[in-house]
Design a protein that fits this description.
The strands form two sheets. Strands 14-13-12-11-7-10-9-8-15 form a nine-stranded mixed sheet, covered by helices on one side. It has a six-stranded parallel sheet with strand order 3-2-1-4-5-6, with helices on both faces. It is α/β, with parallel strands linked by helices and about 325 residues long. The chain is globular, with a radius of gyration of 20 Å. The mean pLDDT is about 95. It folds into two domains: about 120 residues, NAD(P)-binding Rossmann-like Domain (Rossmann fold), CATH 3.40.50.720; about 180 residues, 2-Layer Sandwich (Dihydrodipicolinate Reductase, domain 2), CATH 3.30.360.10. The chain starts with a strand and ends with a strand. The longest helix has 16 residues. About 30% of the residues lie in helices and about 25% in strands.
Amino acid sequence: MSKRVAVIGLGSIAERHRRNIRLLWPESKIYAISSSGRRPQPPIPHCDELISCVNDVLKKPIDMAIVASPAPFHALHAIELIQAGIPTLIEKPLSTNLEDANAILTCAYGANNQVAVGYCLRFLPSALLMKSLVEKRKVGQIFNVFIEVGQYLPDWRPNKHYKDTVSASAELGGGALFELSHEFDYCQWMFGELSLQHASLRSSPQLKLDVEDMVDVVATLPNGALVNIHLDFLQRQAHRTCRVVGSDGVLNWDLINNSVTFSDSNGNETIYNDAHWDKNQMYTNMLAQFATAPIQNYGSMLCTPAQALNTVRFINTIKNSNYLHCNNQK
């Protein structure tokens, strides 16, 4: 099966998508579009044709599009594609402001074509298992959830200085809140809507960024359980975990090692462990499901625009909350 796919953006995630499109559909025609309008020097990896702007894409017989431009420009690019009837996968987050996020959602509701948001962690095997275990009340009544992710920003893109990346730029939607918003997405996907109780945003002297590189959030779930979420750009050894404490035991999920363990009065049980699973399959599985299965299907793991809007809304609440404590540490 061949595809004609347009990928907006020329950054690392856009290149990954182009590479995976070629992997899934080798005979595909892949169009690359610069989100800024600049004309980069060829060659562009995994690209058959470089197009100057989204308007020119609309003149092509496109089967699907991926919006992988910086998040503040998602609405600008996605709405045109959606209105043109092109199935559109939007990289996370949906947007960095609530107005644009709502505009994309309104457009998606009025369209007959597939629209989804690229929260790929939902396609990690251990994530699917965790969701199933939570739904089956493996730990009984949930009392607490502890979520932590820490990754050293200078190691993310070794071929580029970290201060020159989107992650470090407030103007381009950087900062830990949006860059690590996967945690807010999967938390609400698994446990239900979050209600903010307290938030602290900090910027460390190590990285000297104009965006937050440390975030601590306390929230509650619909059943009253307390959720503690920590995000940072600072941990030299990448760390990504979720711990669920309930009346019948504790679930420990290690996202990096792709493992799930359960502990109760009888001891510890490893339910799943596959550290060598190729994590690029999260992206290929997401693309394959987007291309072949309607998002409305029961069992779809794709993030809907409405679900992605909830994440933007929660982040917006954090940024504007009376509970917020933000400082630059000296």
